[in-house]
Design goal:
- By secondary structure, the chain is mostly helical.
- It has helices at about 45-55, 60-75, 80-119.
- Helix 1 (about 45-55) runs parallel beside helix 3 (about 80-119).
- The longest helix has about 40 residues, at about 80-119.
- Bound molecules: zinc ion (ZN).
- Zinc ion binds near residues 6 and 8.
């Protein structure tokens, strides 16, 4: 997890940030997100997830979209750790989708070459 105030990396379950003294407990102490500069920037990877779905591998791309579309909602709800986790999962599934897409293209080329050779 990260300090919501200064972004210092903290051990999971840390109550008070040793760097800036901000309380890390969920809820009331957390400032409203989207108002000030304290809202952390967490990439939602939504564009990448959509592109991966369209051009690479549909099933894994959809998984990436599900995680990507959850990032902003978690940020809005103050669940920064959850948003970061969803962001990382979206990025992971985009990579899986891209790799599957590349493998699919290679297999397609091999099959077409084999079909051409058979004729
Ligand atoms: Zn801090």
């Amino acid at each position: 997890m990260f300090c919501y105030n200064c972004r210092q990396e903290l051990a999971e379950g840390t109550a008070v940030c040793p760097a800036c003294g901000a309380a890390q407990n969920q809820g009331a102490a957390r400032p409203a997100v989207g108002v000030g500069a304290t809202a952390p920037v967490i990439p939602n990877h939504l564009v990448g997830a959509v592109l991966a779905t369209l051009f690479c591998c549909l099933p894994f791309g959809i998984v990436a979209i599900v995680y990507a579309s959850g990032v902003n909602g978690k940020i809005a709800a103050g669940d920064i750790a959850g948003a970061e986790a969803a962001s990382k999962k979206a990025a992971t599934w985009i990579n899986v989708s891209v790799i599957c897409g590349i493998i699919g293209i290679i297999l397609n080329v091999i099959l077409q070459v084999a079909a051409a050779a058979a004729n």
